[in-house]
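Please check this.
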Amino acid sequence: MWNKIKWYIQKFMIGRNGRDELQVTVAYASLILYIFAPWFDKLLPVPFFRTICWIGIFYSLFRFCSKDVLRRREENRKFLQELEFLKLRHSVRKTHKIYRCKGCGRKIRVPRGKGKIEISCPLCGNKFIRRT
């Protein structure tokens, strides 16, 4: 019986997105917020946080079962890029500042404590002034 159910699930998931990092992150964040929602909902007259939790859970299920795999992969790639950017920014936060080039979007690392300096992008040559 379990093998038959497993086979039906596998057949259903053919051509669908399945699990990825963005879907898992949204699902876990929604479940954690749902656990703490009763304390947060006391602050507001409407069940705002529980509604947000359910929206997150349904979005996670939508991503899991979506047949538009290319679009979901692109969303997941952008999510992973932003996550990498936040990790990089956190790891060098005491010694460097990280800026994004307005022209090409490349991340530029600049040492802290140099005052106002002109930063030029090594990729596209765009120049901008920032305080470090």
Q: What stands out?
A: The beta strands are 96-100, 107-111, 116-120, 127-131.
